[in-house]
Amino acid sequence: MSKIVITGGAGFIGSHIAEALVQDHEVVIVDNLDDYYPLALKQRNLDCVMAKGNATFIRGDITDLELVRSVIDDTVDFVYHEAAQAGVRISVEDPFKPNNANVTGTLNVLSVARDAGVKRVINASSSSVYGKVQYLPFDEKHPTQPVSPYGVSKLAAEHYCRVFYEVYGLPTVSLRYFTVYGPRMRPDLGISIFTRKMLANEPITIFGDGEQTRDFTYIDNIVKANLDLLKTSAADGYAMNVGGGHRITVNDLIAHIREITGSVSEVVYSDKQKGDAEHTLANVGLASELIGYKPETTIGDGLRTYVMWHRQGVKP
Ligand SMILES: NC(=O)c1ccc[n+]([C@@H]2O[C@H](COP(=O)([O-])OP(=O)(O)OC[C@H]3O[C@@H](n4cnc5c(N)ncnc54)[C@H](O)[C@@H]3O)[C@@H](O)[C@H]2O)c1
């Protein structure tokens, strides 16, 4: 049994990682329960974790260095660093908030983890680090030119992780997540908004012409990649893609959800949003080579499971 700290463990991805670990490990969740989306959803996420086993929850902010020191001490083996101000659009409105949480917060986590002798910090990064597309699929050699303040903050955090490995010998791995979806997903993400509205037959808005493409990754694939990193040092020092390995247009995504739900929602096209990436698609070759990563769940199966979860009447 290891002692594992999960920053942002009340959020979508962090709570799934916690849920998968809580039976076999001592799990400590630190999260400031930020009000970016409703607190009730974070409480629900925590309840799902606690229903599986005993985790310790600490309400605290990772920008507070003393707080981080009190959570990550020399009894901690691994840290999953999921806490962040996620979301591209909010970062365009207020670039300081993601910078504080994602850059300063990450620096706090890394410096304390180094001092505490943590065995590995696994950092949630993002496909947003790529930004401007020069070719697809993105492999890790693709230039990183973020197109949003959020992307800049995730890239800075990744560089800090690499540098802490190279300069201080703290084992770190950054996983570049590609648009993650599934039960309990963030309510501000496209699949969540479209599904809620389409189940209610309400009009949906697509920003742009809907021909932008996304590589959507089912949550189970992300959890597995994270858990596999407890067992191997093969990826230490790396940043690597964990995506679905396929892309679809937003118009096709709507068509899939329409087919599953039978919705008659009207589609309204609106202006493209600043900061949104045009296309994403992951080459997952590096993660496959280093940790045997293989995205098992197809978009069709993943969407069906997600819609079924909604239909069970659970809050989005
Ligand atoms: N969901 C995706 O599609 C996606 C894609 C790429 C990268 N990511 C990254 O994955 C991680 C998890 O994303 P998510 O979708 O689960 O988001 P989320 O918002 O559901 O979870 C993040 C959690 O971090 C907490 N948090 C925010 N600022 C904090 C702070 N200063 N101190 C402590 N806790 C803080 C929030 O309260 C929240 O519970 C983030 O680092 C995000 O940038 C997510």
From TrEMBL:
Coiled coil: none
CDD domains recorded: UDP_AE_SDR_e
SUPFAM superfamilies named in the record: NAD(P)-binding Rossmann-fold domains
Record-annotated membrane-spanning stretches: none
Domain of life, per lineage: Archaea
Protein family per UniProt: Belongs to the NAD(P)-dependent epimerase/dehydratase family.
Pfam families: Epimerase
Name the record gives this protein: UDP-glucose 4-epimerase
Domain NAD-dependent epimerase/dehydratase: from-to ranges: 4-243
